[in-house]
Design goal:
With about 400 residues, this protein is α/β, with parallel strands linked by helices. It has 14 helices and 18 strands. The strands form 3 sheets. Strands 7, 8, 9, 10, 11, 12, 15, 16 and 18 form a 9-stranded mixed β-sheet that branches. Bound molecules: NADPH dihydro-nicotinamide-adenine-dinucleotide phosphate.
């Protein structure tokens, strides 16, 4: 019996809200609030028409801690799911502290003026959450999120010690545009155009943006160019996975996406500082977001599959072991179910499951937690029930799916 307050009304929110409504035995009341109320109303109408479930909607400024706290108290929310933007993580965590309700998000804090993300400022609130007697669950999307849970499941059930992890994120969907991003363009382009980074033998190694590429054979999708990026789940996994010697993250990109991104970067369109234009100040990457297709509008036109998973190598019963745990998702099936494409779906479903773990007390604690700090099993069971089934391939310890 929980009243969930969901903040943000983009593609990820749409899926998380639909999935909460499909689990109304847990989420007995749902309030969806965002900057643009009409987007909340549109999602509410979709849910009423499809599922017959009523949800409440409201306009809210997630940058305003006082306003959110007052609103959450007024409606009697039991937990808050942040699926707005990473810029709002700290204000929304503070709002939860003021009201004394659990906090869940899908992406770690970023300051709008610096293209840099890390857990430091969110982890720094650990004592505040401990003292308030409530949990904050960080990064309950797919990556971060399910990838952390895959690693935790391997650590808890499949290995005595884990030594190497490669996280492999493939979106083989085609939306038919020469260039568009699958989730918020500003956040996506800041991430992809940054330096790459991976962790080996206790230190971080920095690479130039997209410097390292391999051709990886993704089950049920095929061979795709996969580029090494820095990704936020590595920051917590190096702390929480015992015996780890190396962790890397790879994501696939098509040539058209990369060509457009490099061109936009070369002409200054990815700049995040203000520039003077015809007597007014604009931030180029924000202007670019206005020109690009809204990721939420890609749903009806995207075909193909995603495959996101982890290849994990370590020791079991004194012998080397290697497993590949992954999920495959179909863009058109996701759209038929929720009105959103697979990138929103693979994020929104785990956002709901993380909220469900907290609401039902299957995951409980006081303080700030990353996903791998809890028992992976109940979350893995829900993935199978809620539309993101996973598979495990037992690999030969020396086998690689890299195609030369
Ligand atoms: P969108 O840009 O589509 O949606 C963001 C929503 O937040 C919009 O409705 C927006 O309002 C709202 N919003 C922004 N600022 C405020 C504010 N100050 N107050 C209230 N509402 C606000 O993003 P996505 O749905 O694609 O992504 C949502 C989150 O999911 C992001 O944090 C993203 O980084 C994360 N993500 C995580 C992934 C993972 O696997 N872990 C993968 C993909 C995304 P408006 O409609 O007015 O613009």
């Amino acid at each position: 019996m929980s009243h969930i307050l969901i903040i943000g009304a983009g593609g990820v929110s749409r899926v998380a809200t639909v999935k909460c409504a499909m689990n109304s035995q847990v989420f007995t009341k749902i309030t969806l609030a965002s900057r643009t109320k009409s987007k909340c109303d549109e999602i509410a109408k979709f849910i009423k028409d499809r599922l017959g479930v009523e949800i409440a909607t409201a306009k809210i400024d997630a940058d305003d801690t006082e306003a959110v706290a007052k609103f959450a108290k007024k409606i009697g929310a039991d937990l808050l799911l942040n699926v707005a933007l990473p810029y709002q993580d700290l204000t929304l965590m503070d709002a939860c502290l003021k009201v004394g309700i659990p906090y869940i998000d899908t992406a770690n804090y970023e300051h709008p003026d610096t293209a840099h993300f890390e857990y430091k400022l969110q982890w720094a609130k650990n004592d505040d959450f401990k003292n308030a007697g409530i949990p904050a669950l960080l990064g309950s999307g797919f990556d971060p999120g399910v990838t952390n849970v895959f690693c935790a499941y391997a650590q808890q059930n499949l290995f005595d010690e884990i030594n190497e992890i490669d996280i492999l994120d493939c979106n083989a969907g085609d939306h038919g545009y020469a260039f568009a991003t699958n989730f918020n363009p500003e956040i996506n382009l800041r991430e992809v155009s940054a330096n790459g980074r991976y962790w080996e033998n206790g230190s971080w190694i920095t690479t130039k943006p997209l410097e390292i590429m391999m051709k990886w054979d993704y089950p049920k999708v095929g061979v795709k160019d996969s580029y090494l990026l820095y990704h936020e789940e590595m920051e917590s996994l190096v702390k929480n996975i015992k015996g780890l010697k190396r962790i890397r993250f790879f994501m696939t990109f098509g040539q058209s996406y990369l060509m457009h991104m490099r061109c936009l970067e070369n002409v200054g369109m990815l700049r995040i500082d203000e520039v003077e234009h015809n007597g007014m100040k604009i931030v180029p990457i924000q202007f670019l977001k206005t020109l690009l297709p809204d990721p939420a509008s890609l749903g009806p036109r995207t075909k193909g599959k995603t495959n996101i998973g982890c290849v994990i190598k370590g020791i079991k019963d004194g012998k080397p072991r290697k497993v590949y745990i992954y999920n495959v998702c179909d863009h058109e099936e996701c759209y038929a179910e929720t009105g959103a494409q697979a990138v929103s779906y693979t994020t929104g479903v785990p956002a709901m499951i993380g909220s469900m773990m907290i609401a039902t007390g299957k995951w409980s604690g006081k303080g700030v937690f990353n996903m791998e700090e809890f028992d992976a099993k109940p979350f893995m069971d829900e993935l199978n029930k809620q539309g993101l089934p996973w598979e495990i391939i037992e690999m030969d310890p020396d086998e690689s799916r890299v195609v030369e």
